[in-house]
Known about the structure:
The chain is mostly helical. Helix content is 64%, strand content 4%. It contains 21 helices and 6 strands.
Amino acid sequence: MGALSTLPGGKPTQVENRADPSPTATSLAVALVLALSATTIALANLDSRPGRDFQLHTILLASDLALLALIGIGVGGLRVAIRSWRSHACVLAALALGLSMMPAALVNPSDRGAAALVRWSGAVALGLAVGSARRDGRRLVVGALALVTLAHVSVAFGQRAAGGPIGLDALGEARSHEIGGLYASSGLTVHPYVLAAWCAVAGTALLALQRRRPAAGGLTTVAGIAAFAGIGLTMSRAGALGAALALAVLSLSTRRPRDRRWRAPAAGAAAALALGALVNLSGWISRAGQASGSVDAISSGRGALVRQAWALLRDDLLTGVGPGRYVLALVERPALVELSSQSPRPVHVTPLLLVVEGGLVVVPALILLVLAVVRACRRAGATATAVALAMVPFLALDHLAWSYPQGMVLAGVWLGVIDLLSQRDDADPVEDAQERSGPSGPPEAPA
């Protein structure tokens, strides 16, 4: 995007600014990130010590290279985003969150911490690119999101039909996961719950974008509806809750006569969710039976994980245990490991996980992020609210948005879509900034 320069006659003209990224290059990079994030192709294991838990390894993925490329392409767009911060408040708040983790990373350096911060930077760059997508670039980005979502759902149904993995090891297909006594599909993600999060958030985002900012034609609606069927194959209660919240908001917002045409996609998504659940009905019945047990059984042992987290936080209150080091810090304290009957794993509450790893210094950034999302939802109404609510159960009941590379990519998409929906129709953040400067562009610098 070029900058305005004022000619002697007072007429503004467009001047190319080499610092600004090419919209086409950025959109292509986003599409590449989304495509590669659909896989878990490992290029290298940076931890050569044998016998270590996989949660302690630092693995270089193909999607990491695409994220690095996106960071390089989009770095010039950060200046534009800051200048028009109202259009990118959610993603800029996520950037502040990443910066707030730096003290913990310096006090507790680790290769996993460095990888986490680089990936989070990539998620921020992804969110900025999604929130800045215009016209042809938006069609490319939304089309890529739709195709990746359809790929996940198609593989998930194939896995369900086969009763297990379908031989896509080259793409990083996950091993078998049994939930509720039944095989749970994971698509091309690392875990069924990651698939559930992707389907809930991406499905809602696609339906919301088609309603507010149409792109990629009917493919967007088809992929958005199909995504909800994928949730039913995962036995994820967070997925079911996120889908229910999102669809409730979208459905209630169609009561006005002018919005009646959007009732069919919402009804189709609800039917797809029911279809997926029906395919795995016995697993869902088994999961529902857990609701009659103890609190620990209902929460799948999450209460013990929270107690471990609070104990870790008390030991390193200000700067935390370091990004990416939660499980390592837990393993170093055998007494805390014994608080849970499960093997060492992150606490399943994303904000608490971030505070334990980054210390209390990250709390202001977390509050800023919450305020930015709430503000965007108030500006955009039902569409952004539905997208936001689709992710909330996974933030409250899981850790995937920070612990898994695919979860970070999804978080970037989530925040970028919320920002995009909160902008006025067909708005360009740069044009908005220029409009606020006056009809003749920014004032001339003194000679």
